[in-house]
Amino acid sequence: MSELRCYGCGAKIQSEDPKRPGYLPAKAKQGKEQVLCQRCFKLLHYHTKIASPLTQDDFLKVISKIGDKDALVVYILDLFDFNASQIPGLMRHIGYNDVLVLANKRDLLPASLKEHRLMMWVRRQLKAEGLKPVDVIITSGKKNLNFDEIYEKIDAYRHGRDVYVVGTTNVGKSTFINGLLKHYVQVTTQITTSEFPGTTLDLIKIPFDETSSLYDTPGIMNNRQMTSRVDDKVLKLIMPQSEVKAMTYQLSDKQSLYIEGLARMDYIEGEKGSFTCFFSKRLKIHRTKLENADGLYNRHKTLAITLPEIQTIDQMKAYEFTFDGTKQDIVIAGLGFMSIKTKGKVVIRVPEGIDVIVREPLV
Q1: Structure confidence by residue, pLDDT tens digits, 320-353
Q2: Is 135 within 8 Å of 153 (Cβ atoms)?
């Protein structure tokens, strides 16, 4: 008799320890072939945030199981938070299996952005990371964008093999799989989805046919994203749910932009330039003179979203960048990005441990 697993997160069902994955009281599982663990039940019905009990090493151990298989790997990336959603050294973990890349959350980017241009941008980013996928498809799990093409490509590239879906937390893996199940497999149960990181805890197996299956894998936690540091209330605010509207500021030097209390951009010196912000529309952006920027944060923290460990702006880490007049993006991992066209010096302030990078412009 096969072991009973939660169809929501993949954890092995057990009734001994409520603190361990897969807990379900013995009475609740009697006579059932499909069950939800207590954790998934609370996520699904009460929208309760429950911290993942697994570490990053635990997630990598699960992913590394793919390296022993002959399979197709569907690698899902978040277009809005592209760089932070990449898995470092992915090919080492999956044993150099074929990789089909799905660039997800197209619905969050401006509708005016041409798909071909976006596709070329994604391919250049992947090439820089040394990844050569069998194909790249732009998609939106929320909008079922290009799902017919995805299903056809998966069927073509897998050659009857199993398929493993991988990605960091909150790239939309479970939403994507549920979309495929709803449109093509017609199953009666779905895996658990949530905006909270770490929802899936183990491999979730969904049979394709008698000889092969689709597997959802746990998301790899990236602790250098803003989304890994904030509480659940702030998490809902910083994760956009619809198209991000560009907010453009023409700044002279000695001016600053605040993204709530989470980050600050100081234009230290240079020519007048264009700064276009792409953040969740639920976050407020404040412009002020650089000479007033410290006081604005320190006096009005109650008006901003702040992290408990940051009491003054001096406790944030500063990253300095110099621009030569060509258009580039500054990305704050897990928060958003700014498209900057200026010739001058910029300082970005974020909590210690949050990644800030400069890249080729996306928009």
Answers
A1: 999 999 999 999 999 999 999 999 999 999 999 9
A2: yes
109 exposure class (CB count in 10 Å sphere: 0-12, 13-18, 19+)? buried
Whole-number Å distance between alpha carbons of 128 and 76: 17
Q: What are phi and psi of 99, to 5 degrees?
A: -125, 125
Element (H, E) at 357: strand 356-359
Paired tokens of 142: 């929320």
Q: What is the dihedral of CA 40, 54, 167, 93, to 10 degrees?
A: -140
Query: Residue 153 is encoded by which pair of tokens?
Result: 């490509």
Amino acid, res. 83: N
Could you tell me the fold of the domain covering 51-222? Rossmann fold (3.40.50)
Contact 69, 94 (CB under 8 A): no
Indicate the pLDDT class of residue 12, thresholds 50, 70 and 90. Answer: confident
Q: Can you point out the beta strands (E) in 239-316?
A: 247-251, 255-259, 263-270, 273-279, 285-289
Q: What tens digit of pLDDT does each residue of 114-123 get?
A: 999 999 999 9
Q: What does the domain layout of the chain look like in residue ranges?
A: 1-50, 51-222, 247-359
Give the pTM. 0.82
